Task: inverse folding
DNA sequence: CGAGCGCCGTTTTTT
DNA sequence: ACGGCGCTCG
């Protein structure tokens, strides 16, 4: 650990006034940087300079010697954001920034767990299972329990387990309150328990465990928790609106005052605890860490994975005496973009009204475009990108967003044809490719030999003639003899296999042994930085994996070979950046990369990504594509309580990423499941004042002209609409132009419930809030208000005439 | 045990 | 439209 080993900047730096830190801040920003107290909530609208405020706040704590670097824990949403923050703090305070913990929730928890794993039955070499890994494990368990007969698919089970873990429910606690007379429920409980035991046996945590188990650890071992409570005196959490319950609990545990009585200068795990600077009171042991959270409830877009908006809306209740600072001035976007964003988000009720503003002028109008097909739309985007590029907008300052990953395909096709350089962030991620997972499984097999999943994965890759029967036999032998799968595999002669299989297994064992010797140095010895790269190369060569790919005549295997080479290059790069990095460090880094953590962002390409991935990023020019009903808002969200509101926030996030130019595009038809369907413009377009948008081609244009000529080169593929039909698809038949002209037409159902009668005791359903029970009705005529208790979201007051409700 | 074929479900978002 | 998975046959 390098924690705090670097000295604070000395001499004039610390004496110097904070002018440079505070320069150019507006009053609320200033307050956010300089406020000192136990709890601070910074409500930071999009583009309000929150990163700058956070970094300056940290810098000012360090400069004033109110905290040592090692006493600061800053949680960001992505590793990339963490890196940027570290760099920016470094620019302000130099070397003093070393030793801070700036990382994501998951990275911070891994760090803690690696240190403390042996406290509760794991080793520090534990594996991190990504969703694919846990899916594979669950698949086996679901099969074993024949649970599919009860409608329990691996995906469904995985979803439920994830949700439960985010709520800090474990298998036992859930079992206690489950309805065990329901057979499906009983089997689910069994699978959950088996799953957890399998993880434990494999010395592995899944993503959700990383958080939840850290919380358990702190609760079960208060003296361990105390180590971290004493250590971190300032905790800062970004994107607080997207924290889930487990993360919230973790923060709570960390900000609690230490309970133990004996502060030791050196804690058990060898971590150094520094005494507080003497002129300050923060060393008082009874006080919990100061907490700063930054968030914007309008940008909460992760409810589907357990983010609980109440964490931020009830912050003041959770932390009495908390200070709240509002940052509303936007420094990113033009007023036109902000006005559009404000208008859209204003349609969400149940939100504190908050309006972004800027003093930098209206800027260009938002450009709208309606393509005939998704390819047509993509061609518009590609053409426009070229126009911008000729105007000296670098490709790296342009981004294309979409709601679902599958939409990227059409864009890619057209971009390739149009020679637009692009990179896709996230998507089918590099690390999810089969060949990469294979290669990583070899590494896991070295680092964590009890991880049976990893060994099973590589058992027959490349093909060694080892099939299901052999695999099961090894597993049974291992179980009978109470040894690990890895050890069983090492003496195949005991299992009565044929000579061919014995030879194959022995060879695999030899390769693994040899690689272990290379990559896992004896205790005390330091492995050379190149160990991971060399070990991986050795594994892939001697196992025959590369040979098999090379020998294959499947054209895709060539690409796979390149990908594996790329992974080897990644290990070399890792060695350069982390001279002391071990195989475990490498696997950790790889397991926790996020979609937005792109490796090279100086690549001079246009970025393509989902709107979710776009959160926290900003670009000069942004293309928001597929702005259609059933896409954004997504069809599936329509029936979920709070779904439509969350979709609106997602759209809002997309819009507010743009600094100067925003393009909103859609297609009139979209191919889905191989079928062409008619798309309707998104309701969110309606919510933007018409004068803000300049339509290059409005939905009305496309309709009334009876089909545009497709500009997409490949729109004439046989089987798609172009070839056969000379007439227009019937659904797009021309209509009268004037009334059709966009804004005022599309799905705009102005809501009017008329004289809907509601009385206390009625049950209603609300588009966003779900079902609820009417407690009372007050007011008269058009202003009658229903007081409703919703099952999902609690009590709300609704204007009966216009609320999106129906009586049940 | 492995290759080939046909069927099915897929597309919401992610650490 | 496509890929993944399971089934069947060699």
Result:
């Amino acid at each position: 650990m390098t924690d705090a080993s670097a000295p604070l900047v000395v001499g004039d730096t610390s004496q110097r006034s904070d002018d440079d830190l505070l320069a150019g801040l507006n009053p609320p920003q200033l307050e956010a940087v300089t406020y000192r107290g136990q709890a601070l909530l910074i409500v930071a609208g999009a583009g309000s300079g929150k990163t700058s405020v956070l970094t300056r706040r940290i810098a000012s704590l360090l400069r004033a010697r109110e905290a040592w670097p090692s006493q600061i824990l800053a949680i960001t949403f992505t590793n990339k954001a963490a890196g940027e923050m570290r760099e920016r703090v470094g620019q302000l305070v130099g070397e003093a920034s070393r030793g801070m913990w700036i990382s994501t929730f998951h990275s911070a928890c891994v760090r803690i767990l690696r240190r403390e794993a042996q406290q509760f039955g794991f080793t520090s070499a534990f594996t991190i299972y990504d969703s694919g890994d846990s899916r594979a494990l669950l698949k086996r368990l679901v099969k074993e329990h024949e649970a599919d007969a009860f409608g329990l698919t691996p995906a469904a089970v995985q979803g439920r387990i994830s949700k439960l873990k985010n709520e800090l429910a474990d298998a036992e606690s859930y079992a206690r309150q489950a309805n065990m007379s329901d057979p499906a429920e009983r089997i689910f409980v069994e699978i959950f328990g088996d799953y957890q035991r399998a993880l434990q046996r494999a010395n592995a945590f899944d993503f959700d465990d990383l958080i939840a188990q850290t919380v358990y650890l702190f609760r079960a071992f208060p003296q361990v928790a105390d180590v971290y409570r004493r250590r971190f005196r300032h905790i800062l959490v970004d994107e607080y609106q997207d924290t889930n319950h487990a993360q919230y609990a973790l923060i709570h545990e960390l900000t609690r005052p230490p309970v133990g009585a004996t502060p030791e200068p050196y804690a058990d795990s060898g971590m150094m605890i520094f005494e507080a600077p003497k002129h300050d009171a923060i060393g008082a042991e009874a006080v919990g860490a100061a907490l700063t959270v930054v968030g914007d409830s309008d940008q909460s877009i992760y409810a589907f994975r357990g983010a609980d908006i109440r964490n931020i809306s009830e912050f003041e209740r959770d932390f009495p005496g908390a200070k709240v600072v509002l940052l509303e001035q936007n420094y990113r976007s033009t007023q036109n973009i902000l006005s559009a964003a404000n208008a859209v988000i204003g349609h969400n009720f149940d939100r504190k009204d908050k309006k972004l503003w800027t003093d930098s002028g209206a800027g260009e109008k938002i450009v709208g475009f309606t393509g005939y097909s998704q390819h047509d739309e993509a061609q518009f985007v590609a053409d426009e990108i070229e126009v911008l590029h000729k105007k000296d907008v670098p490709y790296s300052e342009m981004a294309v967003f979409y709601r679902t990953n599958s939409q990227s395909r059409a864009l890619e096709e057209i971009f390739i044809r149009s020679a637009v350089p692009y990179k896709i962030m996230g998507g089918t991620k590099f690390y999810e490719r089969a060949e990469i997972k294979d290669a990583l499984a070899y590494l896991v097999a070295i680092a964590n030999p009890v991880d049976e999943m990893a060994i099973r994965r590589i058992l027959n890759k490349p093909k060694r003639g080892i099939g299901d029967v052999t695999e099961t036999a090894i597993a049974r032998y291992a179980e009978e003899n109470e040894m690990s799968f890895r050890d069983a595999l090492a003496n195949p002669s005991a299992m009565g296999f044929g000579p061919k299989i014995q030879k194959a297994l022995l060879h695999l064992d030899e390769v693994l042994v040899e690689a272990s010797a290379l990559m896992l140095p004896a205790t005390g010895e330091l492995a050379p930085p190149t160990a991971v790269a060399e070990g991986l190369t050795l594994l892939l060569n001697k196992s025959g994996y590369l040979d098999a790919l090379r020998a294959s005549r499947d054209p895709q295997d060539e690409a796979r070979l390149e990908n594996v080479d790329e992974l080897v290059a990644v290990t070399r790069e890792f060695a350069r950046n982390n001279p002391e990095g071990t195989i475990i460090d490498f696997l950790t880094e790889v397991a926790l990369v996020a979609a937005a953590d792109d490796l090279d962002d100086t690549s001079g390409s246009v970025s393509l990504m989902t709107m979710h991935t776009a959160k926290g990023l900003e670009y000069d020019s942004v293309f928001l594509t597929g702005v259609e009903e059933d896409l954004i808002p997504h069809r599936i969200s329509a029936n979920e309580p709070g779904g439509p509101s969350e979709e609106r926030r997602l759209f809002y996030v997309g819009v507010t990423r743009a600094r100067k130019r925003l393009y909103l595009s859609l297609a009139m038809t979209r191919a889905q499941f191989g079928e062409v369907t008619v798309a309707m413009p998104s309701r969110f377009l309606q919510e933007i004042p018409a004068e803000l948008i300049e339509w290059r081609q409005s939905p009305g244009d496309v309709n009334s002209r009876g089909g545009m000529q497709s500009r997409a080169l490949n729109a004439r593929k046989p089987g798609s609409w172009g070839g056969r039909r000379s007439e227009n698809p019937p659904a797009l038949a021309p209509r009268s132009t004037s009334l059709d002209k966009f804004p005022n037409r599309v799905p705009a159902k102005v809501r009017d419930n008329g004289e809907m009668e509601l009385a206390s005791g009625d049950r209603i359903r609300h588009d966003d809030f779900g079902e609820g029970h009417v407690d009372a009705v007050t007011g008269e005529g058009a202003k009658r208000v229903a007081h409703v208790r919703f099952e999902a979201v609690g009590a709300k007051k609704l204007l009966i005439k216009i609320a999106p409700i129906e009586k049940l």
Notes: The longest strand of chain A covers residues 658-667. Chain A is about 40% helix and 15% strand. The radius of gyration of chain A is 29 Å. The longest helix of chain A spans residues 555-577.
